[in-house]
Amino acid sequence: SASASASDSSASNTTPPVLVSSPIIASLSRSLRRHSTTDVTLPCSICAKQIQLLLFEEHEKTCTGADISMTDTIECKICKEQVSVKTYFDHEDMCMGIVETQVEIDETISLVCPGEKEALANGALKTYVIKPSRGFTGGALDTHFRIAESQFLRLLGAGSQRYQVTQVEYMINPKLYTKFEAKRLEFERTLGKEFAKPILAFHGTAASNIALICRDNFSLAKLSSNTGDKGYYGAGIYFSEYTHYSIGYIKNGNKIMLCKVLLGKTFACPQVQVGMSLTPGYHSHSSPDGHNEIVIFDVDQILPCYLVSYAPLSAGAPIPSLF
Fold first, then answer.
1. pLDDT digits over 240-284, tens only?
2. Mean pLDDT to the nearest integer, 76-85
3. Which of 88, 103, 197, 271 has its Cβ near the most Cβ atoms within 10 Å?
4. Which residues contact residue 26 at a Cβ distance below 8 angstroms, ignoring those fewer than 6 apart?
5. Edge-to-edge strands, sheet with 294-296
């Protein structure tokens, strides 16, 4: 077999090989040699096969990768995408660099929650449930709650129903984050930094859709499943910068999604054009006003970040509870 997971030497049938990540191959080759067993393997940086540690150095000296097909793939441990073994290590380094850069940025503004680094490194979806608190420590959980709460309350339309935020769920999804950040860097490189700045935008949907969206992102294949139409301003995923506008699309629940969205170049539709495709030369559409409705045609431009739970306040109701 030409599979990237095949081994050049026989291994124990009962003990699985120990897989080691590429960035530390050189140091491990030296430091683990004195502990070598037939169960310890390293991935060859040329053919990506797992090679017994004792044979690793000699294998890399002579490996040409000639027996590896361009169609052979291996799963990236960070983004979980299947990547050609010919480009695997470059791809893995890019993914790790994206994750490390975001952690460094977030740490400077106290946005990294406990366990977030580990979740990003391990590729695991992680959710933080944050309740309102009277005290403010300036920590990550406090800050994330206030970001979501302020966006929700600030962008309620004048004269709309009054609400209070009862809970914020902050989500870390390394697979979706890596794709989103790759798209952001692409926009920055091809369009300039101004077009690579994400906005925060709301999306209202049926409660039954939320878990799947948080796990796998939105799906263009499910267009019109919630609203019954293909969209007034194009056949894409719809967002609004206004809270009250998206709340109108929520069914059987009291949670609204708050996502980071990359607009790129936006085409402001002059009129309703139901189900139209993305306008050539642009990366998103909007309603004529530019804010009520935003349409995204590539899900990699979307990163679900927060679920905001809310409750209505009746006219003359007392100040919301601090706790």
1. 999 999 999 999 999 999 999 999 999 999 999 898 999 999 999
2. 72
3. 88
4. none
5. 237-239, 294-296, 284-286, 266-268
